[in-house]
């Protein structure tokens, strides 16, 4: 979030091939009848399967040299662009919930800039993802006020709005983030509520309600925005990382103005100091120990987004933190004892120009199918969104230009974001919710449309959501975003929480003959919420993988289900889960088009009810 949008050095520096790509895009065919199928890729990444049977096939391919060596060029333009059809569900199916930021009070504070997120949580373990929505906040007499959290219960064919007072205790936080995980290993999903002044833990009572377990003491007085829960220490209990922002208060509230120098507007984060991020290690009994200093993650870096995942596939959980107007941070877990800051040598902290971006939303995914988790950050206007390809050995290369991401017009302010195979062609696409941070921007609109980037052959991303009939063409002040399969049809849907307008659910209407599988993972030796676990579907000559992550997006938590799109001509030969700590479980290959629970140490899968 770059304040009032100061232009960054190298504005619109696209390579020649990217410019040619933009010109050719106007000649490409837009297909609106459904989602096209790419080949299954069984002739793709290879490797010696027999000699490496206990290693993920995609990892073998990466180790043996995929994507390495030589000068790289942008791929050839594909013959057609797929339009992925989505439809916004009506108010009859999704009752109105409006997160708010208090901007109508005309205080024009930076607090109003952040908006709020949401979480896709199966509240009562009936198999259907519900939506927990952060309400945001308000102002009164130069004081900060809270608004209620909302719950939309999924009834399989609609959502019902549940009165907040009947399922959730009140909070005093002006709040942004909802970070969901099973914090106490009782089988029900809890969440951490992040807001201005602290973070509060809500534990699931198992009957469709939550109770407050209190504030996290080390976060008191801090501006907490997002969180990621994972077992960082390897003791089986879920720990919590909290991303904190700046030291704004009404006592530290300088007047800021729009470009005309007269109209009051929200201030830039550059005028404030960053606050220390927090790491809280669980004692397994409901208590937490402040470990940020000892573990080396107490950076004062104006953090907004965080994602936890096993980035080097060594069995423990690492961290990627998206910071505003400062270098992003990449932390390598050193066998559950501490984190090593590998930001500088990794290359994942800055843009392709070597300068910090203003990052809000972050995610992790193996976008190119080489077996290594790659990094993604949604950034401010005049900056390219960034995709960092994992080269191995904690080296990440910014390939935004090589993959077409830098060809997106630099007028968007990106927030909630997620990788997912929206067209079920076997690779991961990416979606971004956008919206400005000031009331009177000089360079772009306050309300902005979302971006849906289709992964083409695991080498290039093409923006596909701009058709005027699509909800992606509509402008909104986007903030939080989650991905879920709300109706169990095997298509990934999108939930968004804009500022001061109703929460929306965009239903995926992608057609085609592809198949799908969806998995929920439960750890036993590992944490019950096994962040870092990798599900591998082995095809004839290559693998597809999905990883359980903590946090991600912006101030939001997507569904815990790992959804695979499987091309119609593909044959799954093996299903293997690689658990945190290094153990693995092979399961029988299930029938296509089903949702299954995979439990560590068991040899059979359990169907989740429809």
Strand order of the largest sheet: 21-20-19-18-38
Instruction: Report the uncertain regions.
Output: 1-34, 36-80
Structural class: mainly beta
Through-space gap between termini: 42 Å
Overall mean pLDDT: 88
Largest sheet: 5 strands, antiparallel
What Rg is obtained from the alpha carbons, in whole angstroms? 22 Å
Query: What best-fitting shape do the alpha-carbon axes yield?
Result: globular
- Helical content, roughly? under 10%
Strand content range: 25-35%
Based on DSSP secondary structure assignment, what is the total number of beta strands? 43
| Count of helix runs | 5
Q: Care to describe what's here?
A:
This protein is mainly beta and 610 residues long. Helices cover 5% and strands 34% of the residues. It is built from 5 helices and 43 strands. A hairpin with a 6-residue loop joins strand 23 and strand 24. Mean pLDDT is 88; it is low at 1-34 and 36-80.
Describe, in short, the structure shown.
The protein is 5% helix and 34% strand.
Summarize the SSE layout with pairings.
Blueprint: H1 16-25, E1 29-31, H2 57-63, E2 80-82, E3 86-88, E4 118-121, E5 130-133, E6 137-139, E7 144-146, E8 150-154, E9 159-162, H3 164-167, E10 174-181, E11 190-196, E12 198-204, E13 210-215, E14 224-230, E15 239-244, E16 278-282, E17 288-290, H4 292-295, E18 303-309, E19 318-323, E20 329-333, E21 339-341, H5 343-346, E22 359-365, E23 374-379, E24 386-392, E25 395-398, E26 414-420, E27 429-434, E28 448-449, E29 451-456, E30 460-463, E31 475-476, E32 480-484, E33 493-497, E34 504-508, E35 515-522, E36 534-538, E37 543-547, E38 550-551, E39 562-566, E40 574-578, E41 584-587, E42 594-599, E43 606-607
Parallel strand pairs: 1-2, 35-42
Antiparallel strand pairs: 3-34, 4-5, 5-8, 6-7, 8-9, 10-11, 11-12, 12-13, 14-15, 15-16, 16-17, 18-19, 18-38, 19-20, 20-21, 22-23, 23-24, 24-25, 26-27, 27-29, 28-31, 29-30, 32-33, 33-34, 35-39, 36-37, 36-40, 40-41, 42-43
